[in-house]
Amino acid sequence: MSFQTDPRVDADESVATDPESEPLVSVENLQTYYDTGGIRSSNPVKAVDGVSFEIERGETLGLVGESGCGKTTLGRTLVRLERPTGGSVAFDGTDITTLSGEELTAWRKNAQIVFQDPDSSMNDRLTVGKIVREPLDSYDWKTPRQRRARVRELLDLVGLQPEHYYRYPHQFSGGQRQRIGIARALALNPDFVVLDEPTSALDVSVQAKILNLLEELQAELGLTYLLIAHDLSVVRHACDRIAVMYLGNIMEIGEAEQVFTEPANPYTRTLLSAIPSPDPTVDRNRIPLRGSPPSPRDPPAGCPLSTRCPMKVRPDKWDELSEDLWHALDVLQDILRERSKRADNLPTQIRRRVGLEDPTADFATIRDSVFEDVSVPESVATELDETERRLAEGGEPAALEYLRERFGSDCDAVFPDDHAVDATGRTSRCHRHREGDDESTAVDRGRFGR
Amino acid sequence: MTLDADSDGPTESSANADPLLAVEGLRTVFSTDKEEIHAVDGIDFDVREGETLGIVGESGSGKSVTARSIMGLVKSPGRIVDGSIRYRGEDLVGKSEDELRAYRGGDIAMIFQDPMTSLNPVYTVGNQIEEALELHQGLSGSEATDEAASLLESVNIPDARRRLGEYPHEFSGGMRQRALIAMALACDPEVLICDEPTTALDVTTQAQILELLQDVQRERDLGMIFITHDMGVIAEIADRVGVMYAGEIIERAPVERLFAKPKHPYTRGLLESIPGRNPEAARLHTIEGDVPTATEPAASCRFAPRCPKAIDGCDRVHPSAVAVDDADADSAGTDGADDGAIDGHTVSCLLYPEDRSREWRLEGHRDGDSIDATDLEGARTDGGTDETTSRGADATTSRGAGKATGDDASADTRDDATNEVIDE
After folding, report:
1. Is residue B389's pLDDT more than 70?
2. Is the pLDDT of residue B330 over 70?
3. Could you say which DSSP state residue A16 is in?
4. What whole-number distance in Å separates Cα of residue A304 and Cα of residue A295?
5. What phi and psi, each to the nearest 5 degrees, are found at residue A193?
6. Within 10 Å of residue A256's Cβ, how many Cβ atoms?
7. How far is the alpha carbon of B97 from chain A, nearest alpha carbon, in Å?
8. Is B73 helix (H, G, I), strand (E, B) or coil?
9. Which residues of B touch A67 (CB under 8 A)?
10. How far apart are CA B148 and CA B161, in angstroms?
């Protein structure tokens, strides 16, 4: 099917936009924690851990990051499917984090969401017409006859046929189901739509159609989008600005093209370099990111990326250490961190208390295998001996604490500030942006080439 | 320049390197009360030591069924109805379950898309790797544990010995896929089939896994079949590529060549619909319609209904593979000649060979695949075979101009073509 670009909606349906007005959504230090106040541990899951940004009217802000970084939670919080535990979200000037009851219901018309999985996000026992009509029904929108007419109009708007009204979701392909989801989200004429990975379950040729449709709808209806995606090429194509999220924090946010062509934050760089390019002749200069993200229950004390960062600041006093040795030290910490996660349970703690388990039992083996191919100077070896002693005394957390103390830098201790990195208002969180720290030297040292 | 019916062109000049695995004319059909689904419909390919064959296609194109057919994992109501799968010369089609089991895992191993469902949640990862070691290499006890630990280390899982005692849910997604790769390697296979191994992973993890697979392949000289829907991944990992559409391989070429000079209108459309390939374009290119389900043997080009460049005849003649290496003069000076000598670029499309008249092409393709001219699907639209032929001849002249412009994929040519087909 093909789409015309001419408006097929009544004039009164398009949202009046005023370019000079305030941003539509303005987020200030937003926090969404899960699982607060458990019995044993008071560590909540810090899914969104203090983010601030704005979304202008009519723009598309892309939100990218690895799975588990909190991007979906952030999207759900913005439409109040989750209740934030801190900060504020000003929508058109109203703080929506405190809304409840009728006020919340009335506001919800303005902000809708399209879900990732078109299979599980609609009731298979309802007809398509009923699914799209549901928001209208629950808001008692006009008369039933007008509602049906509105549904037909919506189906047409998203490129479906009127006869699809009486069919069931399972009779549609993935792309068509996503169209149904979009029609449902648009039923009440929202200003703001959160698109949570709307195309990640689709094939690329179908994805292209849905992305084109979303773009047309935005132009026709004056919509404002938050597009959540893990596919960076999708975001680059569809978004005006991009926010890069890691472990509940926004690491970099700015104009899409700028972020793509000159990424400032080390995390953005690694993320971009990991995209497989659909061009076999391209020379991939891949920046590896070790391991997997830490648990959002227990994020690193300093920079969120410090446990994996390929550009971490090294302390001056260890200036003579080789990159291979640093790598080995990182791996050792990875192992201890992983083990400390495993040991954080009652049976292990008791076994250790009564001497049935020795946390240092195989430390020598680990040490041998990790430092197998690197020469360890005497000074470092002494530190490792001490690490073993701390491990015996206080378990993994104590050993890690010691290693951080001896080999860590600001990256491990201080949460990085937001630094403006170009004239377009792009900001990035990284200690490397501080004055006098020339990040390119790190690149030249060949750390990226590993 | 001749039509190459069996499309075994790619292997002819490298006869000295016998393929590890050679698939010929494979057809896998799923029969239900309602209909027969030709999931894999006559595909040929081969894999040699140390090379990666990429199979790319959208969902429903039959790529996973291809993998399962090779592994002998196609279960009722599906069955392999035709063709051969030769592993080092030995045909695996028709072998009993017991005989197959010796190959499966041992010689040909497979990695699946979803690492969580491929691992048993109630056994430790160590258990599962050791089981494979016991089955295929006869190791047991501490010997098996040592080998399992070194396998985990070889796929870059730190603290391997401790990790052996953990359960799959304690592993992250990337770790699980690493563990599965370790398990596949436990059997010391010659051929590794990867069915969308990175689709469920983040790009950063995907990059790690792709790198690992490449390392492992290099170390062990594995023949690898890599199935994915992601053109970016294909560009990265494959040496040669087959593009699948509705159960058929419609184009095959060395990877650089496929991306530089795609020939089939479907391949072109697929490449153009990837966001970011040309960032300036405001709208993404799309392919009309959806991938069809093949419910009948192919009697026409299955892509024709969606094809922007369909010509009269596409709905009646099933295209055979045409070698296009030397056909296009403009590539001869660049990379074409070299690639052509080792691996062929073939395309199953009635637009090729380009230097022949439309009539010649229709005849050639018809003979090429020995299609019975009386049993054509196209007959339903125009009512009779005789008429079909005469009409075809008429159209040859009228489409002369269409052919000339048909080369640049443009929307107006598509409209032309569709209109003409409908009008007539």
Report:
1. no
2. no
3. P
4. 11
5. -125, 130
6. 19
7. 34
8. coil
9. 173, 202
10. 8
Return the higher-pLDDT residue of A440 and A195: A195
Q: Is residue B359 part of a domain?
A: yes
Contact call for A280 and B159, based on CB within 8 A: no
B229 neighbourhood in chain A, CB within 8 Å: 203-204
Euclidean distance between CA atoms B281 and B380, whole angstroms: 40
Q: Do A233 and B276 touch (CB under 8 A)?
A: yes
Partner residues linked to A57 by β-bridges: none
Structural domains of chain B, count: 1
Q: φ and ψ at B299, to 5 degrees?
A: -120, 5
Interface A–B counts its CB contacts (< 8 A) at 139
CA angle B418, B420, B424 (to 5 degrees): 125
What confidence category does residue B124 fall into, taking pLDDT thresholds of 50, 70 and 90? very high
| CATH topology classification for A11-239 | Rossmann fold (3.40.50)
CB-based contacts of A368, cutoff 8 Å, min separation 6: none
Residue A114 burial (CB count, 10 A):
24
Nearest CA distance, B374 vs chain A (angstrom): 33
Query: Residues with Cβ < 8 Å from B350, sequence gap 6 or more?
Result: B301, B311, B313, B314, B317, B319, B358, B361, B362, B365
**Token couple for A307:** 């446990």
| Domain-located, residue B330 | yes
CA end-to-end distance (rounded Å), chain A = 48
Asked, for residue B352, whether it belongs to a domain, the answer is: yes
B chain contacts of residue A286, beta-carbon cutoff 8 Å: 207, 211
- Residue boundaries of the structural domains of chain A: 11-239, 316-408
The angle, 0 to 180 degrees and rounded to 10, between the axes of the packed helices B141-154 and B173-186 is 130
Q: Is B164 domain-assigned?
A: no
User: Is A236 in Cβ contact with B158 (below 8 Å)?
Assistant: no
pLDDT digits (tens, 9 = 90+) for A376-408: 888 999 999 999 999 888 888 899 999 998 898
- In 3D space, the residue among A110, A421, A440 whose CA is nearest the CA of residue A244 turns out to be A421
> Is the Cβ–Cβ distance between B15 and B187 less than 8 Å?
no
Q: Which residue does chain A place closest to B237, by CA atoms? A: A280
Contacts of B253 in chain A (CB under 8 A): none
Domain range for B403: 248-253+293-423
Q: Which two tokens stand for residue A270?
A: 């690694």
Evaluate if residue A246 carries a pLDDT over 80: yes
The 10s digit of each residue's pLDDT in A14-64 is 444 444 568 999 999 999 998 776 565 668 889 999 999 999 999 999 999
Return the residue matching tokens 């950063």: B204
CA A406 to chain centre: 32
| Total Cβ atoms within 10 A of residue A49 | 22
In the three-class reduction of DSSP (H, G, I as helix; E, B as strand; rest coil), residue A87 is classed as: strand
| Closest residue in chain B to residue A281, using alpha carbons only | B256
**Residues of chain A contacting B236 with CB distance shorter than 8 Å:** 276-277, 280, 284
Average pLDDT over residues A77-92: 93
Picking from B174, B229, B231, the nearest residue to A278 by CB comes out as B231
